[in-house]
Each structure stands twice: as structure tokens, then as C-alpha cells.
Amino acid sequence: MEVFLMQEYLDSYKQMISLRGLTDHTLKSYCTYLSAYLNYLETVLHKSPLEVSWDELRSFIFWIQQQRSLSDRTVNICISQLRFFTLYVLHKPWDPYQLPMRKFDSYLPFVPSKEEINTFISTLPDLKQKAMVALMYSAGLRVGEVCHLKYKDIDRKSMRIHISHGKNRSDRYAILSRQALDILTAYLFAFDKPMDWLFPKQRDHSLPIDTYFIMRHMRIHEERLGLEHRITCHSCRHAFGTHLYENGTDLLTIKALLGHKSLISTTIYVQLASNGTGCAVSPFDVPGGRPHA
Questions:
Q1: Active site residue 243
Q2: CA-to-CA distance for 251 and 202, rounded, in angstroms?
Q3: 165 is catalytic
């Protein structure tokens, strides 16, 4: 199979994904394993995608899992990409019984305490980094949402933040914390008050800052404080949801503030909160509920 034909398949795949209106970031992530698959066909099997059998599809899954030490959850992402490619580019039927999704273990994420978060933010030496992390935690924003904030999105009058086209391609309003606003105001005056992107790139103010900027500096700050590598952009978001629930906020409100598509995603905070499942008392220990000795 010639290289240019494989490129045509990849281009067709990208075009079909683009028709779904996905973001450039999603488009890039969706192509990760399909590119590896097409390369596998070219260099190992020497076959066209139309000629591949189910046995050979399964052999690719085993091969890439071994080559890249993929988790079962990530293998499912790879299978999903192959399914999309088969259905929408090759126009062939997909049989889930031939290549089933993997079962995988689920783990509760690490959630820093309020004290840990406050210490982490207050000791950040750079105002730009401090403003970004403060907004991320205080409003429960995703890192991409913080990076794509514009000056006009900050509504000081109603104390809320407009999030446009989040992960689920829907707008929402998030909380604007007074403490976070104070930090943000100090940042704006120190950095010549950006009027378009709130956090523009240093060398090109017409573009928003890259997500790895804050991720890298959070890691550096952890090392500076002598902490384990556990406080991440997403753990700040989990901390927001958990701390809201601990403060008595109902799950439907938390769901709306976080922009979750399903309430199932929000119920995790019942387990993570200190006053969630951990405060339940076994009926065996309730007076009147114990058997006689």
C-alpha cells in the first residue's frame, strides 16, 4: 500500500470528523491511534484498510497496547477510532462482538483540601499563573476554558463568568469569586490590561495561551513546595465540585456550574466529599437496630 493512499484515508477520516463540528483539539486526539493503525497496515501487514480481517484488527489492538503500554480505558479510545473509520470512511459494517470494548477499573480522583488549594494558590509567585489557577479552582473551569477566556467574559456586575462553547459545545455561566476577581484585577493592571484574550500568548497576543503553560508551571510550583505531583488542572476542578457539595450545594446546581452533560458525572462528588458517603452510619450501629447479645 502506497503512502499517499494511506494519507488519503487519513484525510477522509479528518474530513468526516470535521463534519461533526468537533474542535481542532478533539480532531487531533481522534487521529492519534488511527494514524498508528494506517502505519501498521503499511509497514507490518502490507494491506489496504478494505482488506483487513477482524483477526488482523484484533492483532493491531494487541500490538499497540503492548507497544505503548496502553490502559484498557485508552484501548477503548483506540477501538472507538477504528469503529468511526470503518463506518464513516470505509462504509463497512461494524461488529461489536468481533472487537468488544474493554472492561476497566475506575478509581476515585485525588481531591486537594481547601487548605491545600489555598496554600498552593497564595504561594504562586507569578500573577498570571496565580490568576489562572484561582479562576480554575474558584469557578471549576477546565484548563482549556481558562485559556480561552476573554475580557468580555468576566461580568463583574453579576459576578459570573461566561463560558462559551465548553467541552459539550454549550455555553454556561460559572461563579466569579470575589477573591479570584481581586487576583485577576491585580494581574490585569500588571500585564497592561489585555482587552481581548484574558491570557494571551506572550509572543502573539492575537492567540490564547496554550494549556501546557499553566500545566507546566503548576508542576514546577509543586516541586518548589516539595509536594507530590497530585495538584493538577483537573484536580482543581474536582476540588471545586467536592467543596461545593461539602458546603451544601445540591448536585443539580453543581452539574450546571461544571457544565456536565449527565448528572452521573456529578454524583462522584458524593463519594469524594467528607460529608458524603463517609458520614453515613451503618444501620447495624443505630440504637434499636442491633441484635441482642
A1: no
A2: 39
A3: no
Q: Is there a catalytic annotation at residue 91?
A: no
Our answer to whether residue 88 is catalytic in this structure is: no
State the pLDDT at residue 160: 96
Return the C-alpha cell found at 108. 476515585
Measured N-to-C along each axis, helices 251-258 and 233-246 cross at an angle, to the nearest 10 degrees, of: 150
CA–CA distance, 1 with 46 (Å, rounded to integer): 6
In the predicted model, residues of the chain with pLDDT beneath 70 are: 1-4, 22-26, 165-169, 288-293
User: Measuring CA to CA, how many Å separate 81 from each of 1, 45, 66, 77?
Assistant: 21, 19, 18, 6
Strand, helix or coil at 89? coil
Dist. CA 179–CA 293, nearest whole Å: 56
Over the stretch 227-257, which tens digit does the pLDDT of each residue have?
A: 887 899 999 999 999 999 999 999 999 999 9
> Catalytic pick from 128, 237, 243, 255?
237
Helix pair 211-225, 127-139: axis angle to 10 deg: 100
Model pLDDT for residues 108-136, shown as the tens digit of each residue: 889 999 999 999 999 999 999 999 999 99
Does residue 17 contact residue 85 with C-beta atoms inside 8 Å? no
Q: Residue 95: how many CB atoms within 10 A of its CB?
A: 11
Marked catalytic residue, from 47, 162, 167, 201: 167
Residue 249 has phi, psi (to 5 degrees) of -70, 135
* Short-list 287, 239, 275, CA closest to 111: 239
Q: What pLDDT sits at residue 1?
A: 47
- Is there a catalytic annotation at residue 58? no
Segment 117-121 long-range contacts (CB within 8 Å, at least 24 positions apart):
117/231, 117/236, 117/239, 119/225, 120/221, 120/222, 120/225, 120/227, 120/231, 121/183
The per-residue pLDDT of the chain, averaged, comes to 89
Q: Which residue has the cell 507490518?
A: 44
